[in-house]
Design a protein that fits this description.
Blueprint: H1 6-14, E1 26-39, E2 44-45, E3 49-50, E4 54-72, E5 80-84, E6 87-88, H2 90-103, E7 113-121, H3 132-151, H4 157-171, E8 183-186, E9 200-202, E10 215-219, H5 230-236, H6 243-263, H7 266-285, H8 296-312, E11 317-320, E12 326-330, H9 335-346, E13 355-359, E14 365-367
Parallel strand pairs: 5-7
Antiparallel strand pairs: 1-4, 1-14, 2-3, 4-7, 4-8, 5-6, 8-9, 10-12, 10-13, 11-12
Length: about 375
């Protein structure tokens, strides 16, 4: 952990970028997964900086595939076109333009390029999985690759992913964790001396082998648009009566979780993960104004999971994002039993019986293209 500002470093580095040679259109492509937080990030300050550290599992099957065609801009105004799943998406295109403008002080060469962005998700758009993490991490990874192509920088793998994580955070806080595989931690903590509020770091080397076998069954209870956005929820934490206690709780839970991950202690892992999920929704319900994102079938499914675990004595746990959908985390050794239970008892509670079978990922993947230097 360091007080040195990465933002200052990248601003300083940006002054070294000169002109570049780009005589033809180039293509870059990254596949970046979503993630599910185990220790929740809820409350922020400054420019997308977290009030408490968070840690997440990086998923494998639920990812965003982003291709960017780029060329030297012609004329005074650069072009940014955003195509989502075969159609131009003007709403998200405006968000992407603002995002590019926001990070241009760290990668000023983007002001001299035209971009056509093609993006799609491997999971259904209406599946209720927050796609901002995978979307902005894939965009940031593409920008980092373009920097390396044009200026031969970021050749060091660690430097590359650190900058990509930094850029991803500026689009969506949780996106900075999706630039790494297995487990990623974001936010300063005395427990890890390389931690930072400005980017995420990988912690996969601290995982007991049992957690590398974990699956994530995502129950899509309701895919509808949330009544309250996560952005609004973060804002409400500024005056939340339990904010300081929450931030202390997150730090305490992080310590317990890291120890459980190192020891292979699945029982402690389960208790902490569920405590975090319920605390997150408790904060929503005690905000001013309060809001409830769980649905009736969310509670029915949780009750069934608790009853099944008590009866079977299996080691598994569950968590929720800022929405009604449930992530069931379980080890490979009970996969057959969990699949049978999900199919018979939980799938009928899901919207159109939809649930997603996922597992831990090694992280984002770059696709080498013919048009890339």
């Amino acid at each position: 952990m360091s007080n040195y500002s990465l933002a200052e470093k990248y601003r300083h580095d940006a002054k070294k970028f000169g002109d570049f040679n780009l005589s033809e259109k180039k293509l870059v492509e990254w596949h970046s997964p979503s993630n599910i937080a185990l220790i929740k990030y809820w409350g922020k300050y400054g420019d997308q900086l977290p009030k408490n550290p968070s840690i997440s599992f990086t998923l494998n099957n639920s990812k965003t595939i982003t291709k960017i065609e780029y060329s030297k801009a012609v004329g005074l105004e650069r072009k940014i076109v955003y195509d989502f799943e075969g159609q131009r998406n003007l709403i998200f295109e405006e968000r992407v333009k603002k995002y590019f403008h926001k990070f241009s002080e760290f990668v000023p060469f983007v002001k001299s390029l035209d971009f056509t962005i093609y993006s799609h998700n491997t999971f259904p758009h209406s599946a209720g999985i927050a796609s901002s993490a995978s979307s902005f991490s894939s965009l940031a990874l593409c920008i980092a690759s373009i920097e390396h192509t044009l200026f031969n920088t970021l050749g060091n793998k660690i430097d590359f992913f650190r900058k990509a994580s930094f850029l991803a955070r500026l689009g969506s806080g949780s996106a900075c964790r999706s630039t790494f595989g297995k487990l990623a931690l974001w936010g300063e903590t005395d427990l890890m001396n390389t931690s930072s509020n400005e980017l995420a770091i990988p912690v996969d080397k601290a995982i007991h082998p049992v957690f590398n076998t974990y699956y994530d069954a995502i129950l899509i209870i309701d895919s509808g648009k949330k009544a309250f956005s996560s952005t609004h929820g973060h804002e409400l934490m500024k005056d939340h009566p339990f904010a300081n206690s929450r931030y202390q709780q997150a730090n305490d839970n992080l310590k317990k979780l890291l120890q459980a991950l190192a020891d292979g202690d699945e029982n402690t892992f389960a208790r902490v993960v569920e405590n975090e999920a319920m605390s997150l929704h408790g904060l929503m319900m005690s905000s001013n104004p309060p809001f409830v994102l769980m649905k009736p079938n969310t509670l029915v499914a949780i009750t069934k999971l608790e009853e099944f675990r008590l009866k079977s004595n299996y080691s598994f746990t569950f968590t929720l994002d800022a929405g009604p959908n449930i992530h069931i985390l379980y080890p490979e050794r009970i996969r057959s039993e969990m699949l049978n239970f999900i199919s018979s008892e939980l799938s009928p509670l899901c919207e159109n019986s939809l649930w997603i079978d996922d597992h831990l990922s090694d992280g984002p993947e770059k696709v080498v293209t013919k048009n890339e230097i």
